[in-house]
Design brief:
57% helix; alpha+beta; 3-stranded antiparallel β-sheet; 223 residues
Length: 223
Protein backbone atom coordinates (compact mmCIF):
# COMPACT_ATOMS: atom_id res chain seq x y z
CA UNK A 1 0.00 0.00 0.00
CA UNK A 2 1.28 3.52 -0.78
CA UNK A 3 2.49 5.66 2.12
CA UNK A 4 2.92 9.46 2.38
CA UNK A 5 6.43 10.92 2.37
CA UNK A 6 6.25 11.47 6.13
CA UNK A 7 6.96 7.75 6.61
CA UNK A 8 10.64 8.47 5.85
CA UNK A 9 10.97 10.83 8.84
CA UNK A 10 11.64 7.99 11.27
CA UNK A 11 15.38 8.86 11.71
CA UNK A 12 14.30 12.26 13.07
CA UNK A 13 11.84 10.56 15.42
CA UNK A 14 14.55 8.19 16.68
CA UNK A 15 17.00 11.04 17.37
CA UNK A 16 14.29 13.15 19.05
CA UNK A 17 13.31 10.22 21.29
CA UNK A 18 16.93 9.50 22.25
CA UNK A 19 17.50 13.19 22.96
CA UNK A 20 14.33 13.34 25.09
CA UNK A 21 15.49 10.35 27.17
CA UNK A 22 19.04 11.66 27.60
CA UNK A 23 17.86 15.16 28.49
CA UNK A 24 15.22 13.86 30.90
CA UNK A 25 17.58 11.68 32.89
CA UNK A 26 20.19 14.43 32.76
CA UNK A 27 17.74 16.83 34.37
CA UNK A 28 17.95 19.44 31.61
CA UNK A 29 14.47 20.90 32.08
CA UNK A 30 16.01 24.34 31.61
CA UNK A 31 19.22 24.84 29.66
CA UNK A 32 21.97 27.42 29.37
CA UNK A 33 23.84 27.08 26.04
CA UNK A 34 26.79 29.09 27.32
CA UNK A 35 27.62 26.70 30.18
CA UNK A 36 26.01 23.37 29.26
CA UNK A 37 27.41 21.31 26.37
CA UNK A 38 25.14 18.26 26.29
CA UNK A 39 21.96 20.17 25.32
CA UNK A 40 23.92 21.90 22.56
CA UNK A 41 25.26 18.57 21.24
CA UNK A 42 21.83 16.87 21.29
CA UNK A 43 20.13 19.85 19.69
CA UNK A 44 22.79 20.08 16.99
CA UNK A 45 22.49 16.35 16.26
CA UNK A 46 18.72 16.66 16.05
CA UNK A 47 18.92 19.61 13.65
CA UNK A 48 21.44 17.88 11.38
CA UNK A 49 19.38 14.67 11.15
CA UNK A 50 16.14 16.59 10.63
CA UNK A 51 17.65 18.73 7.84
CA UNK A 52 19.09 15.66 6.10
CA UNK A 53 15.77 13.85 6.50
CA UNK A 54 13.80 16.75 5.03
CA UNK A 55 16.34 17.04 2.21
CA UNK A 56 15.61 13.43 1.25
CA UNK A 57 11.86 14.05 1.33
CA UNK A 58 11.81 17.33 -0.57
CA UNK A 59 14.09 16.24 -3.45
CA UNK A 60 14.19 13.06 -5.53
CA UNK A 61 17.57 11.43 -6.05
CA UNK A 62 17.67 8.98 -8.96
CA UNK A 63 20.84 6.98 -9.44
CA UNK A 64 22.51 9.53 -11.73
CA UNK A 65 21.58 12.46 -9.48
CA UNK A 66 22.88 10.63 -6.40
CA UNK A 67 26.25 9.97 -8.04
CA UNK A 68 26.42 13.62 -9.12
CA UNK A 69 25.69 14.73 -5.55
CA UNK A 70 28.47 12.52 -4.20
CA UNK A 71 30.94 13.91 -6.71
CA UNK A 72 29.88 17.51 -5.94
CA UNK A 73 30.28 17.00 -2.19
CA UNK A 74 33.66 15.33 -2.70
CA UNK A 75 34.78 18.23 -4.92
CA UNK A 76 33.66 20.79 -2.33
CA UNK A 77 35.47 18.92 0.44
CA UNK A 78 38.63 18.71 -1.66
CA UNK A 79 38.41 22.42 -2.49
CA UNK A 80 38.03 23.37 1.18
CA UNK A 81 40.99 21.17 2.10
CA UNK A 82 43.17 22.80 -0.55
CA UNK A 83 41.97 26.25 0.55
CA UNK A 84 43.04 25.56 4.14
CA UNK A 85 46.44 24.45 2.86
CA UNK A 86 46.87 27.70 0.96
CA UNK A 87 45.48 29.87 3.78
CA UNK A 88 46.14 28.18 7.15
CA UNK A 89 44.66 31.10 9.07
CA UNK A 90 41.26 30.51 7.42
CA UNK A 91 40.45 27.35 9.42
CA UNK A 92 40.60 28.99 12.88
CA UNK A 93 38.32 31.76 11.61
CA UNK A 94 35.78 29.23 10.34
CA UNK A 95 36.07 27.26 13.57
CA UNK A 96 35.44 30.40 15.61
CA UNK A 97 32.36 31.12 13.50
CA UNK A 98 30.88 27.68 14.18
CA UNK A 99 31.76 27.66 17.88
CA UNK A 100 29.64 30.78 18.25
CA UNK A 101 26.58 28.80 17.10
CA UNK A 102 25.21 27.01 20.17
CA UNK A 103 21.55 26.08 19.63
CA UNK A 104 20.02 24.40 22.68
CA UNK A 105 16.61 22.93 23.43
CA UNK A 106 15.33 21.59 26.73
CA UNK A 107 13.69 18.30 27.63
CA UNK A 108 10.17 19.57 27.01
CA UNK A 109 11.00 20.43 23.39
CA UNK A 110 12.25 16.93 22.57
CA UNK A 111 9.41 15.22 24.43
CA UNK A 112 6.80 17.31 22.61
CA UNK A 113 8.52 16.72 19.26
CA UNK A 114 8.64 12.95 19.82
CA UNK A 115 4.99 12.76 20.90
CA UNK A 116 3.83 14.88 17.96
CA UNK A 117 5.69 12.68 15.47
CA UNK A 118 4.39 9.50 17.11
CA UNK A 119 0.83 10.81 16.76
CA UNK A 120 1.52 11.60 13.11
CA UNK A 121 2.80 8.08 12.51
CA UNK A 122 -0.31 6.63 14.14
CA UNK A 123 -2.47 8.80 11.86
CA UNK A 124 -0.49 7.60 8.82
CA UNK A 125 -0.85 3.92 9.69
CA UNK A 126 -4.57 4.36 10.33
CA UNK A 127 -5.17 6.30 7.10
CA UNK A 128 -3.49 3.72 4.86
CA UNK A 129 -5.89 1.09 6.20
CA UNK A 130 -8.64 2.98 4.34
CA UNK A 131 -6.76 3.19 1.04
CA UNK A 132 -5.01 0.02 -0.12
CA UNK A 133 -4.75 -2.41 -3.02
CA UNK A 134 -5.37 -6.15 -2.93
CA UNK A 135 -4.56 -8.78 -5.56
CA UNK A 136 -6.75 -11.87 -5.50
CA UNK A 137 -6.88 -14.90 -7.77
CA UNK A 138 -8.49 -13.16 -10.75
CA UNK A 139 -8.92 -9.49 -9.89
CA UNK A 140 -7.13 -6.42 -8.57
CA UNK A 141 -9.12 -4.58 -5.89
CA UNK A 142 -8.75 -0.97 -4.78
CA UNK A 143 -10.23 -0.33 -1.32
CA UNK A 144 -10.59 3.35 -0.51
CA UNK A 145 -12.65 5.62 1.72
CA UNK A 146 -14.01 5.25 5.24
CA UNK A 147 -17.00 3.31 3.90
CA UNK A 148 -14.67 0.91 2.08
CA UNK A 149 -15.51 1.86 -1.50
CA UNK A 150 -14.27 -0.77 -3.93
CA UNK A 151 -13.06 -0.69 -7.52
CA UNK A 152 -12.24 -3.86 -9.41
CA UNK A 153 -9.77 -4.48 -12.22
CA UNK A 154 -9.18 -7.80 -14.02
CA UNK A 155 -5.98 -9.45 -12.84
CA UNK A 156 -5.27 -11.79 -15.81
CA UNK A 157 -2.60 -10.33 -18.12
CA UNK A 158 -1.84 -7.62 -15.54
CA UNK A 159 1.66 -6.23 -16.11
CA UNK A 160 3.71 -4.91 -13.17
CA UNK A 161 6.71 -2.60 -13.45
CA UNK A 162 9.03 -1.59 -10.59
CA UNK A 163 10.97 1.66 -10.39
CA UNK A 164 13.48 2.95 -7.84
CA UNK A 165 12.95 6.68 -8.28
CA UNK A 166 14.86 7.77 -5.14
CA UNK A 167 18.03 6.06 -3.94
CA UNK A 168 17.90 7.47 -0.41
CA UNK A 169 14.25 6.48 0.13
CA UNK A 170 15.18 2.99 -1.06
CA UNK A 171 18.03 2.90 1.46
CA UNK A 172 15.74 4.06 4.29
CA UNK A 173 12.81 1.65 3.80
CA UNK A 174 13.40 -0.18 0.53
CA UNK A 175 10.80 2.14 -1.01
CA UNK A 176 10.02 2.45 -4.69
CA UNK A 177 7.26 2.75 -7.23
CA UNK A 178 4.98 0.07 -8.66
CA UNK A 179 3.27 0.68 -12.00
CA UNK A 180 0.29 -1.56 -12.72
CA UNK A 181 -1.05 -2.00 -16.26
CA UNK A 182 -4.55 -3.57 -16.22
CA UNK A 183 -5.74 -4.68 -19.65
CA UNK A 184 -9.03 -2.75 -19.34
CA UNK A 185 -7.44 0.60 -18.42
CA UNK A 186 -5.87 3.05 -20.84
CA UNK A 187 -3.81 4.68 -18.10
CA UNK A 188 -1.38 2.88 -15.86
CA UNK A 189 -1.93 2.82 -12.10
CA UNK A 190 1.07 4.41 -10.37
CA UNK A 191 1.67 3.55 -6.70
CA UNK A 192 4.38 5.68 -5.09
CA UNK A 193 6.24 5.11 -1.80
CA UNK A 194 5.70 1.35 -1.64
CA UNK A 195 7.76 0.05 1.25
CA UNK A 196 10.08 -2.90 0.54
CA UNK A 197 9.05 -2.66 -3.09
CA UNK A 198 11.24 -5.57 -4.18
CA UNK A 199 9.41 -7.99 -1.90
CA UNK A 200 6.01 -6.63 -3.00
CA UNK A 201 6.95 -6.99 -6.66
CA UNK A 202 8.03 -10.61 -6.14
CA UNK A 203 4.75 -11.39 -4.35
CA UNK A 204 2.73 -9.86 -7.19
CA UNK A 205 4.73 -11.79 -9.76
CA UNK A 206 4.17 -15.03 -7.86
CA UNK A 207 0.39 -14.50 -7.61
CA UNK A 208 0.13 -13.46 -11.26
CA UNK A 209 2.15 -16.54 -12.23
CA UNK A 210 -0.30 -18.81 -10.38
CA UNK A 211 -3.19 -17.09 -12.16
CA UNK A 212 -1.62 -17.87 -15.55
CA UNK A 213 -1.09 -21.49 -14.56
CA UNK A 214 -4.74 -21.83 -13.43
CA UNK A 215 -6.04 -20.24 -16.61
CA UNK A 216 -3.90 -22.54 -18.74
CA UNK A 217 -5.06 -25.62 -16.78
CA UNK A 218 -8.74 -24.69 -17.12
CA UNK A 219 -8.52 -24.05 -20.85
CA UNK A 220 -6.65 -27.31 -21.49
CA UNK A 221 -9.11 -29.26 -19.38
CA UNK A 222 -12.11 -27.87 -21.24
CA UNK A 223 -10.65 -29.01 -24.54
Amino acid sequence: MPYPKFIFMYPTLIVATIAAIVMYFGGYHTVDPDTQNLPVVMTGLFLVVMMANMFVIVFDFPRATSLTLVFVLATIAMGLWMLTLLKPDLLPAIGHLFTGLRPAANTTFFVCTSLAMILMYIAVFVSVRFDYWELRNNELLHHHGFLSDLKRYPAPNLRVDKEINDVFEFLLLGAGRLILHPTTEKRAIVLDNILFVGKKERELTRVLGSIKVQIGSDSSGSN
